[in-house]
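Take a specimen:
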Amino acid sequence: MLDLDPSAPSGAPFAVGFDLDLTLADTRAGISAVYAALAAETGVPIDTGLVVRRIGPPLEEELAYWFPADEVPAMAARYRAMYADIAVPATVPMPGAVAALDAVRARGGRVVVVSGKNQADTERTVRFLGLRADAVVGGLFGADKGEALREHGAGAYIGDHTGDVDAARAASAVAVAVATGSFDSAALAAYGADVVLPDLLAFPAWLGGFPAA
């Protein structure tokens, strides 16, 4: 876990958690490029369009669609070795991402990024995009994110995946879903999200009615 802004007041009355990929960061081009490089290097055909439509679960789960189980650990290590140089520079903020974090801070809140991406690349991505976060935690997916969210006192968790709804539930936080990933608004609502927004552009208005204490 990285504390990116140790000057943030520890007594802030509330905290909001955010997922990274397809919530705060548009990583589709970068992830596609890394898989294309991996395919070129190994000679294994990989449908990068299909890969980016499934962004969210752990890396090893996606790699298992393309490589035998005994090769997945080595392919994961190779993917991560390439990610910083290939994917991070190709990453851009999702629409409304910066304004969403600013809205939390404007109310005296803390921003906590909790991602399924490994810790090092989560930190690199947040820094590259200039996102102001008080804490960054990587390497967690679904309900496993709940412990980190509870540790930082997150009253809400914003994400694009059904696994992010599970994360919020595990942390007893409000599950705010944004329909910017592989699940549309209807699917996220049906799964049980407390709030469904079209994207982060709608987040500041929603936050205005969120209890800060």
In short: Residues 19 and 183 are 14 Å apart (CA to CA). The longest helix spans residues 28-42. The first strand starts at residue 15 and ends at 18.
